[in-house]
Amino acid sequence: MKVLHFKTTYLNPSETFIDGLVRNHKTFEPVITTCYAKSFVKDLNIYEMPKYGLQGFWNTVQIKLNMTPSFLFDVVKDEQPDIIHGHFGLDSYRLIRLRNKAGLPLIVNFYGHDVTRLPREFGWKQRYKRLRKNMDWAVAVSNDMKRNLVKLGFDKNKISVVKLAVDVENIEFNQRHSSGPRLMMVGRCVEKKGFIYALRALTEIRKVIPDITLDLYGDGELLPQLKSYVKDAGLSDCVTFHGFTDNIDIFKALQNHDILLVPSVQAKDGDREGLPQTTVEGMATGIPVIASNHAGLPELVINEETGLQVPTRNSDALKRAVIRLYKDADLVKKVSLGGRLMVEKEHNLNSQIKKTEDLYRQLV
């Protein structure tokens, strides 16, 4: 049996969770379709939208109008898939005509901003109403996201929770027995990541831990503002901005730092996390995590068991949590092991792929 995956851009560098699913199917053969091939495309059966001539022009117009691009009908005719798996709400909306004309079940996988921010944008409440009527099942990455989908009108009986997965068996676990002064954060420099609250905490943390350092891995629209804050706050000697960093180097950093900070918040435009992939990967390596009680994070970071949980937008709580781990070796050992066990149990790649393919079979 075959599954046709679609994402308008395949893939952004941070979307390793989609690549992990596609490359590790067990009983379904993946057929990848995209308008713009970008990353993680090597050795895949992938079809890209025509770029030139009349076909290229017409397919581009269709995408701009959020219609099904015509090349997908040819792919379905050639490959004869059994089911369609759309990634993100916007991209999946573009599959409605394909689903109806081909008579194939459509699964829509939601990930974060497509549940919280996109529905606030002009026209998307109505589009989601149409999507609800012309899809067969929804997938959320956390129970928190499922609740938000229900609030948007999606049928709670047609939503499965399939968590972001990692190939935990191939991630080296290094249980930590104490905490040093090396902090890190990973992600795009956007409001929902909450990086500013960690930077604000740093001034107070260094009064207790003079040699504290913080490495921030990521690029984005707020990077200049964050750099300006660090300079004005006199933190330039202990904060390093690394910009965009590939996944291999992120894993090295996770092994070489003492604490991963995840101070996520809901942005003013409604954007919020689904579940940050790096948090799952970090816990698999054994690095202790301090995360805000935001979105799906509390389902992963259970306070004093798999990490430390702090209120959102609370720099003082972040400060206290960092100092607590620095001083409490027993707690470090506990959450380091607890985090790894949580990932092995709830985010194992093989088990999440099995859930996904069981759902495919149910719908086929």
Features:
2 domains; alpha/beta; Rossmann fold; 6-stranded parallel β-sheet; globular; 7-stranded parallel β-sheet
Can you walk me through this structure?
- 43% of the residues lie in helices and 16% in strands.
- The chain contains 16 helices and 15 strands.
- It has helices at 16-23, 53-64, 71-79, 89-93, 96-102, 113-116, 124-133, 143-151, 195-208, 223-232, 247-256, 277-285, 297-300, 315-327, 329-346, 349-363, and strands spanning 2-6, 9-10, 29-34, 36-37, 46-48, 83-87, 106-109, 137-140, 159-161, 182-186, 213-217, 239-243, 259-262, 289-292, 308-310.
- Strand 14, helix 13 (297-300) and strand 15 (308-310) form a beta-alpha-beta unit.
Can you lay out the helices and strands and say which pair or pack?
Elements (H helix, E strand, L loop, with lengths): L1 E5 L2 E2 L5 H8 L5 E6 L1 E2 L8 E3 L4 H12 L6 H9 L3 E5 L1 H5 L2 H7 L3 E4 L3 H4 L7 H10 L3 E4 L2 H9 L7 E3 L20 E5 L8 H14 L4 E5 L5 H10 L6 E5 L3 H10 L2 E4 L14 H9 L3 E4 L4 H4 L7 E3 L4 H13 L1 H18 L2 H15 L1
Helix pairs in contact: 9-14, 12-15
Helix content: 40-55%
Q: Which superfamily, in CATH terms, is the homologous superfamily of the largest domain?
A: Glycogen Phosphorylase B
Query: Can you count the helices?
Result: 16
CATH C-level label of the largest domain = Alpha Beta
Strand order across the largest sheet: 5-3-1-6-7-8-9
**What's the number of domains?**
2
Radius of gyration: 21 Å
Major β-sheet profile: 7 strands, parallel
CATH third-level topology of the largest domain: Rossmann fold
CATH architecture of the largest domain: 3-Layer(aba) Sandwich
Please mark out the parts with pLDDT under 50 across 5 or more consecutive residues, or reply none: none
Number of strands: 15
Head-to-tail CA distance between termini: 10 Å
What overall geometry do the principal axes of the alpha carbons give?
A: globular
Task: Give the DSSP E fraction (strand runs of 2 or more residues).
Answer: 15-25%
The average pLDDT is 96
